[in-house]
Amino acid sequence: MSHELRTPLNGILGYAQILQRDKTITPQQQKGLGVIKQCGSHLLTLINDILDLSKIEAQKLELHPTDFDFLTFLCGVSEICRVRAEQKNISFSYQTSQHLPQNLHTDEKRLRQVLINLISNAIKFTDAGSVKFSVKLIENGAATVCEIEQPDQCFTPPQCATHKIRFLVEDTGIGIPPEQIDKIFIPFEQVGDRFRKAEGTGLGLAITQKIVAMMGSTLNVESVVNKGSKFWVDLDLHEASQWVDASLMMPAIIRGYKGKKYKILVVDDRWDNRSILINMLEPLGFQLLEATHGEEGIEKALLHQPDLIITDLVMPHMDGFEMTRQLRQIPHFKKTNIIATSASVFILDRQRSQESGCDAFLPKPLQLEDLLETLQVLLKISWIYEETEVQNGVSYAAKYHNSADMVVPPISELITVKEALEIGDFETIEQEAERIKGLDESYANFALKMLEMAQEFDEEAIINLILLNSTH
């Protein structure tokens, strides 16, 4: 079932990403593309919620810890939720205590899922008043960290320590009757009025509770009807062993690559899937070839000898598994890079693709960033990034990675930018960038970078520009 749902989403989200890179698209059309991408992403989230629950119940969901910039991560979560709160005209506040670790080693994706679920649920059930998100370091090993108002007793936690961190979400919403509190953690069970029940699947808190349990903790709740609710969780989280510089993780716009022209063979029985890959990669300078099934894929590979093959797994006549196995028997293709793509989310299919000889696996809907990252690793490509303006021999694409050169104006000067981002009004963002540039000479780098991003209709990059640089 998930395969059938994710396959058409590959076309919707794939072409939304392709068209958003087109400089000829008008601002009005960009707004429409933004709506398409947002709605498609929301549908994908709902599908993934159901899949996550199935994996949890089958005890197949796994945590995958990575090192990441924790403080930047929290800013990103809070900003996503702030926009949702502003859409309901309710107050949203985000607070952190002193001595939070800069970097953590845990499953960033699942921690984000837990926090956004809790905050979104609070916003959903709050019609007036406020939602407050706070994060506090409460314990480091056997020692308890002091409160902010006792700075003389504070200490700096040792590197690579394990920290107990409390994530607390408070709201002034409708509250939950005592007899219904247990129900909110039951899958597909929803409490509250009919309107709010229609807003989701009833899976958010059920999944959140189960993920928190996998992280070794419990989800706590206190609620008073007509006064509000509190949800909190205390997690033991490991500090990262290496420093993570969030400014180096910021995306830049890729326009091509250095070196010889690479040939890529796309094998997929669906025209729309092949078309998406062609339109993603041809503008970057790759030569694309097509095949509709495994047998034709082998014929085209023998004839054209591509540098890399991207293949679907489920196809008529001959599937991607068998095609890969047969290609690996041919001496010339023993080391040819092969990427498997599939709308299937089953771990077994990923394992089978590896056993067949595939070098990588990308789930559908395809994300352009993931695709390009995989190509960079396999083909050892050096990308050419867009450089729209140069000063003193340094491009602004390069300066974007040096956030120390960025001076961000106060949040009061960015209100119009935030409002424009919510509706995809990039023309207004361009006007605001010009205005901010004239406010103070120190804002020039920031304003020019935001102008460049607005001209590229890159909403996510603008949000990151504001968030990441405002944390320094």
From TrEMBL:
Domain Response regulatory: residue ranges: 263-379
All residue ranges annotated as the Histidine kinase domain in the record: 1-239
GO molecular function terms attached to this record: phosphorelay sensor kinase activity
Pfam families, per database record: HATPase_c (PF02518), HisKA (PF00512), Response_reg (PF00072)
EC number annotated for this UniProt entry: 2.7.13.3
SUPFAM superfamilies named in the record: ATPase domain of HSP90 chaperone/DNA topoisomerase II/histidine kinase (SSF55874), CheY-like (SSF52172), Homodimeric domain of signal transducing histidine kinase (SSF47384)
Assigned protein family: In the N-terminal section; belongs to the phytochrome family.
Name the UniProt record assigns to this protein: Circadian input-output histidine kinase CikA
Organism of this sequence: Limnoraphis robusta CS-951
